[in-house]
Amino acid sequence: MLHDYLPAGLQFLNDGTANLAFVCNGGATCMVSTNPLILSLPVVSGNETTIAGITPSFVLPNDAVSDNPTTNSDTYASGVDPYFKFSDLVNTDNDADQEFVVVEFNALVLNISGNQGGITRGNTFTLRIDGTEITPASNNIDIIIAEPNLTLTKAVTTVPSDAGDPLVYTLTITNTSSGVNRATAFDVALIDTLNSNLSLQSVVVTTPSGSTATDTSTLGVGGVVRVSVDNLPPITDIPGAVKTVTVIVTAQVVATAPAGQIIPNTASLAYSSLPGPNGTTSNATGSSTPTGSGTETGERDGSDGAGGLNDYVGASTVDVTLVTPTIDKLTPTPAQYTIGEQVTYDIVVTLPEGVTQDLVVFDDLPVGLAYVSHQTITTTAGSGGLLTADFGGALPTPTVTAPGGSGGDLTLTFGDTTTTADNDPANDKFLVRLTAVVLNVIGNQDGTTLTNLASVRGAGFEQDDPDTAHAP
Q1: Cis before 403? omega within 30
Q2: Looking at the structure, do residues 307 and 389 belong to the same domain, yes or no?
Q3: What pLDDT, in 10s, does the model give residues 35-84?
Q4: How far apart are alpha carbons 198 and 256 in whole angstroms?
Q5: 167-176 b/e with 16+ CB inside 10 Å = b?
Q6: Is pTM beyond 0.85 here?
Q7: Of 144, 162, 190, which residue is a domain's last?
Q8: Burial 278-298 (b: 16+ CB within 10 A, else e)
Q9: Are 325 and 393 in contact (CB under 8 A)?
């Protein structure tokens, strides 16, 4: 019998694919087993000059294969050795050339933690005659565990500013496995669920030669990018110039997107070590992977996530932040004022298209100036040319807080304010015109500088712009 020393991490497949050949050239019965189920049925004519081209095809009967040299038990697991039993074997080919017994069997690379890319598994066998193991063992044959390694990168190639703007992501999938332990990835699945502030417009996929993609994405608000690729070989094994899978995702910021909103996005990737749910059935070896994906005797997949056994996953995150309102307090003309004279400040507020939440315009009048009045102006005509277009939105009537007196500040609370998402920056502005008076107080002396600070505030943002007036 032959005793094969199967290494840990491999499991003998007891599925009827163990085959035997008696190679001799002295006639149909030149080698005979006393096992009545074998006899001379495995005989193949040949010798040392033809042995390399001979493939065993006689299926070993059940009683000729076991996990024990003396019993017919068949309980195989990681590293359990198979024994191939021929009973008494008679070789009658009495010539000068050589005769051979050839056994071919299948083993499964187990999906266990010890089997990682680059790990070597060695295999030898010995011959047993009359219960005695004949030494030394055969030469050692190594196999190397091969694994794919996919990376996912995501970049923003068109950056939006506010509502209505396009946003383009470019996602790239690459199989970076290399060397003798490189392997093709199968059943590549890319999922990218867009934020509710985005509407998915289109998905364009480019694949290398030999890879086929399927796009089942859902367009619209909060759309989902779903792209599957049947296989992706390592870069070095891909013919042609295209070596990666590229997915271009075009979205649009929705009309109600809040100003200053951080729009997060994470794309995720999963793949497997074999095609289909558990490999090709049956494959070129004649065997099939015994159990389902992610199990010990199945293919490796991404079901355990990063850091787990089934870790064929990847992810890439990129955030986009929409712009916030800006404020520009214009320098009053003239710059110098006498006691009792009124100063007019023009404050230009620019809102991003979309919704500005909790909008407040605040003017911090210094001691020495007192609030007189204000106007909120949304038309070109009313602005004296400071606005180049009428405000293209719905500006609520503000709640006004103006206590008056020296240094009394002005607060205009507009609340949520919508600016039309029409991609026209000219109509995103309105004007606050504030009138204040220079008070006759001890602090206002010739040459005194009075600094007036305006700010625009809202949910998650604040921006200031100071300006000055001078007492003569």
Answers
A1: no
A2: no
A3: 999 999 999 999 999 999 999 999 999 999 999 999 999 999 999 999 99
A4: 10
A5: bbbebbbbbe
A6: yes
A7: 144
A8: bbeeeeeeebbbeeebbbebb
A9: no
